[in-house]
């Protein structure tokens, strides 16, 4: 539509969409009073989470106690737990060198991200990294929810109708929808965990000595109605979903492109060999983030993984918006799409290719402004992804471990297994994909 009608188009009777990377900051960063589009906030059956909150003032209230928990300082305190999960990931991968079996890295990365975010939320994890073939992870349930999201947006009663169906019938007729209710049961378990915290039956800190997110929420100055088991249970579901899906997919995308580009992989290995003399002892993330090529590989992998693929509408409730010569009336939803910016050829030359070098040496666009201005996989502004610091700690530590300790060979996997083919809120490759599969050897073998 944009190629035919220009940078601003009406995509339905109510909403406008803009394809102009230079307008991103204006829509998402400059005005804290912009609200979410209410119609799109309940697509997952709940609109009381921080990320789904429509009103900007209520969003600020709900997000305020979370901000300190996701600061770089707080994440640094939590890092020993991430190291523990990286070591469990390494131990699980090592089994495939011994057995010679094919490893699904998608499953491994989903288990890793799931155990990390659950530990930070509650101080415990589901030990997904210790399950056979990393099979017990959150991904199938969240995938089922995401695939239902567009339908439920049009027909929100679907959650009520499905909730009335016997679980045994759902499992028989629609196993993917059944997985959604498995997820709901997991979140009910999380709600029970919250209830224990509320009742004072849980420790305030996990063994590492760091606060857990939900303890901090309960001890914050949030009003009582914001601390109910129901709302915090929904918050847990959303937070774990966000913490698993995006990190796991970013790792999958980054690792694939490195394995598919041997010269770039060797450049990364050379840097890691020098920075990590003993592969059994990983440095902390403050050291790793200063390795220029590792940081560039992570950043480029995140760019290609996109973050969310869905459009992101904002509404100015009282004042008109302005785009070029167009004046947009108050109350009109206006959206942009992350993928349009991250694949903008005028900004990211050869945008579908994995080029970590584009992030080295303070890069500029052809127009002379900072390339980082258009790095938007985490969003920008008051509603940007709160987990960016945790995500980079996970990425840097996992990538350093993977390529300092192991060698991988792609197995029946190609670019179509990581390239976006569907928008299910986050990017989805072809439906027939079997994931990114590899053969594993120790790096020194």
Automatic annotation (TrEMBL):
The keyword Transmembrane does not apply. InterPro entries: Cyt_P450 (IPR001128), Cyt_P450_CS (IPR017972), Cyt_P450_E_grp-I (IPR002401), Cyt_P450_sf (IPR036396), Cytochrome_P450_monoxygenase (IPR050121). Heme binds at residue 385. It comes from Trichoderma aggressivum f. europaeum. PANTHER family: CYTOCHROME P450, N-ACETYLTRYPTOPHAN 6-HYDROXYLASE IVOC-RELATED. Keywords: Heme, Iron, Metal-binding, Monooxygenase, Oxidoreductase. GO terms for molecular function: heme binding; iron ion binding; monooxygenase activity; oxidoreductase activity, acting on paired donors, with incorporation or reduction of molecular oxygen. PROSITE patterns: CYTOCHROME_P450. This is Cytochrome P450. Belongs to the cytochrome P450 family. The lineage of its organism: Eukaryota, Fungi, Dikarya, Ascomycota, Pezizomycotina. Its cofactor is heme. The keyword Protease does not apply. Coiled coil: none annotated.
């Amino acid at each position: 539509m944009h190629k035919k009608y220009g940078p601003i188009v009406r995509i339905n009777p109510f909403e406008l969409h803009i394809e102009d990377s230079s307008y991103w900051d204006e829509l998402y960063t400059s005005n804290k009073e912009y609200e979410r589009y209410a119609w799109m906030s309940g697509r997952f059956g709940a609109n009381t989470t921080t990320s789904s909150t429509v009103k900007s003032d209520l969003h600020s209230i709900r997000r305020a106690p979370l901000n300190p928990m996701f600061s770089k300082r707080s994440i640094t305190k939590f890092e020993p737990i991430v190291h523990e999960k990286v070591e469990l990931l390494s131990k699980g991968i090592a089994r495939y060198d011994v057995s010679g079996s094919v490893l699904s890295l998608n499953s491994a990365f989903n288990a890793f991200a799931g155990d990390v975010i659950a530990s930070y939320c509650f101080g415990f994890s589901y030990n997904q990294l210790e399950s056979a073939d990393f099979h017990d992870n959150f991904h199938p349930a969240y995938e089922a929810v995401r695939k239902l999201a567009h339908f439920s947006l049009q027909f929100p009663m679907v959650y009520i109708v499905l909730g009335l169906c016997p679980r045994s019938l759902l499992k028989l007729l629609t196993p993917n929808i059944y997985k959604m209710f498995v997820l709901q049961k997991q979140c009910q378990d999380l709600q029970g965990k919250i209830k224990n915290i509320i009742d004072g039956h849980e420790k305030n800190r996990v063994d590492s000595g760091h606060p857990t997110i939900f303890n901090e929420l309960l001890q914050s100055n949030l009003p009582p109605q914001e601390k109910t088991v129901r709302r915090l249970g929904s918050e847990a579901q959303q937070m774990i979903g966000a913490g698993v899906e995006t990190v796991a997919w970013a790792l999958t995308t980054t690792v694939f492109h490195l394995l598919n580009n041997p010269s770039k992989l060797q450049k990364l290995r050379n840097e890691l060999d020098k920075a990590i003399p003993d592969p059994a002892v990983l440095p902390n993330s403050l050291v790793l983030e200063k390795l220029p090529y590792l940081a560039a590989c992570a950043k480029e992998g995140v760019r290609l993984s996109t973050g969310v693929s869905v459009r992101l509408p904002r509404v100015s409730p009282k004042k008109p918006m302005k785009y070029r010569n167009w004046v947009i009336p108050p109350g009109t939803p206006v959206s942009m799409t992350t993928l349009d910016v991250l694949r903008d050829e005028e900004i990211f030359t050869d945008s579908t290719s994995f080029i970590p070098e584009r992030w080295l040496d303070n890069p500029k666009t052809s127009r002379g402004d900072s390339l980082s201005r258009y790095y938007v996989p985490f969003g920008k502004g008051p509603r940007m992804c709160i987990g960016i610091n945790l995500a980079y700690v996970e990425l840097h530590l996992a990538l350093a471990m993977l390529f300092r300790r192991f060698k991988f060979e792609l197995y029946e996997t190609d670019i179509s297994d990581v390239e976006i083919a569907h928008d299910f809120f986050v990017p989805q490759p072809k439906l027939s994909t079997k994931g990114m599969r590899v053969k594993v050897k120790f790096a020194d073998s």
